[in-house]
Amino acid sequence: MPVYPIEIPVVAEGQIVPILLARASAGFPSPAGDDLEDEIDPIAWVVRHPSSTFWWRVEGDCLWDVGIRDGDIIAVDRAGKRRLGRAVLAVVEGAVTAKILRKRNGNFYLAPANTREAFPDIELNEDSEIWGVIAGVVRRYDVA
Amino acid sequence: MTRPIAISDSANFYVSAERIFDPSLKDVPVIVLSNNDGCAVARSDEAKALGIKMGEPLHLIRDKIEAHGVRVFSSNYTLYGDISRRVVEVYEDYTPNVEIYSIDECFLDFSGFKDRIIHARAMRSDVLRRVGVPVRVGIASTKTLAKCANDIAKKNPIFAGVLDIMDPTLSSWLLPLVPVGDIWGIGRKTAAKLKGIGVGTAAELRDMPLRQARALGTVVLERTVLELQGESCIAFDDVEPQRKGMAVTRSSGVPMKDFDTLFQAITAHATRAAEKLRQHGLVAGTLTVFFHTNRHRSDRPQYAGSRSTRLTPMSSDTFELVGAAKRCAIAAWPKGNTQAYGFTKAGIMLDDLLPLEDRPRTLFDVPKGSPALMKAFDAVNTRFGKKALVLGSEGMTRSWQLRANYRSPRYTTRISDLPVVR
């Protein structure tokens, strides 16, 4: 089985993530054995700030194009930076909605990300607030 | 040198926690009920404005709730505990020394920070941003004064949630404005006594002769006077005091009328108590069982039963504790017309706690219980969730469990209860 070295370093939180390049071979102890430390914990990788990250369940497909679908569980970081183009949770007229933060003619608005179905844009007014920034998504499939 | 102590707390904490996940609760009256949905224990400012009092029973405010659309919640301690933990995590980024005083109050050591106000403001806005709970911070040289500052900051929006009264000019201006009954540790009786001799404000109490304070209200009042003078008497605890006793008690949702139902509740409480002992590596020497009828229902027959027993050898074994509790419960069960009583509260108290390794042993101690079995018991319940494995005597229906008809979802601790976004 060939192993392809990764040319571009993988960076997370400004730190280079070491990638294990070990050949798996039958009948011979893996030279990588000694380097294994912990079980892989993708949740810890998604949750950058445990005290400010809350999990929500998604209903609807208005963020389909950015890979968030009906039934997914998303991590929402209240301490995340509100940047244009990011998927956010926003409170508009007493309801919480997940959309992309955009700006048009100097005004902020919330846009869907779904080219298959039509969802309306929502203008942000002084009463609305950004609840948090979507930090990751978890989906599971049937295995039974 | 005096050490600046801050106390940070959240006004209407339970309501604030409910509001994080349900924006429709913003700006509307909200109340949270006590255990068993009895009375209001947390009120939003809007609910306070409607005249709903702290501790007011639910059945007396039904009209107000209907008329003004007050949103009512049962206490959701799982949620409040998780939010509280997150708030403390933020505090820990702002001081190395946090002392948790209650679910919504922490004393914080603020020594070493150059500009305490800026530091406190940054902490306050960080708690709001990261967790979503508004907190107020009071800073002073003693815990009692810090509580005062916190109280003033809470009641007067001009301070924008942060008040530092380390500055003597500020404290000499504010203390004459604080009613003596609002001071930490001054109960209603003491406040009345003090007013009787013309001590009506924090400043007047501060200036009271120590000997007179001691004569009027024992050492506790004397200590409060010293604290108001800026002399720290209530230490900033660096170590948690060792637990000497613990209790597991609950009110029952439906009055318990027969022994089996009562014993189911007692089994559950004893099981929980044994788990807590093992978590802390302790064993208990004395176990007390108690149960009583609703004391506020003088129209119904009243009975209070209670029995204690020694645990020899000292133990943290679930079977041992449940067995001892059963002997106590049988002994305390009313003789005669037992069907007449409806027990609304039952509990277990454990005293004489010692670390397992310090447990006294006699020459002829027969080892009772099985540590291996208990280890397995705890492992199963850790892995498969609380109460995955219970003793049969706990029963299956749990009719003694609390009434919580209006509880919000456990938004942060259960995958089935996650808040939903569309």
Automatic annotation (TrEMBL), chain A:
Signal peptide span: none
Peptidase S24/S26A/S26B/S26C domain residues: 19-134
GO MF term (any one): hydrolase activity
EC id: 3.4.21.-
GO biological process, one term: SOS response
The protein's enzyme class: hydrolase
Keywords: Autocatalytic cleavage, DNA damage, DNA repair, Hydrolase, SOS response
Short name of any one Pfam family annotated for the protein: Peptidase_S24
Family to which this protein belongs: Belongs to the peptidase S24 family.
This protein's name: UV-repair and mutation protein UmuD
Classification lineage: Bacteria, Pseudomonadati, Pseudomonadota, Alphaproteobacteria, Rhodobacterales
UniProtKB/TrEMBL annotation, chain B:
EC code: 2.7.7.7
Classification via CDD domains: PolY_Pol_V_umuC (cd01700)
Keywords linked to the UniProt accession: DNA damage, DNA repair, SOS mutagenesis, SOS response
Enzyme class: transferase
Start and end residues of each UmuC domain: 5-187
GO CC annotations on file: cytosol
Catalytic activity: DNA(n) + a 2'-deoxyribonucleoside 5'-triphosphate = DNA(n+1) + diphosphate
Highest taxon, organism lineage: Bacteria
Record has DNA damage as a keyword: yes
GO biological process, any: SOS response
Cited Gene3D superfamilies: 3.30.70.270, 3.40.1170.60, 5' to 3' exonuclease, C-terminal subdomain, DNA polymerase, Y-family, little finger domain
InterPro entries: DNA/RNA_pol_sf, DNA_pol_Y-fam_lit_finger_sf, DNA_pol_Y-fam_little_finger, DNA_polymerase-Y, DUF4113, PolY_HhH_motif, Rev_trsase/Diguanyl_cyclase, UmuC
GO MF entry, a single one: damaged DNA binding
Membrane spanning residue stretches: none
Function of the protein: Poorly processive, error-prone DNA polymerase involved in untargeted mutagenesis. Copies undamaged DNA at stalled replication forks, which arise in vivo from mismatched or misaligned primer ends. These misaligned primers can be extended by PolIV. Exhibits no 3'-5' exonuclease (proofreading) activity. May be involved in translesional synthesis, in conjunction with the beta clamp from PolIII.
Assembly description: Monomer.
Family: Belongs to the DNA polymerase type-Y family.
Protein name: DNA-directed DNA polymerase
Organism of this sequence: Octadecabacter arcticus 238
Gene: umuC4
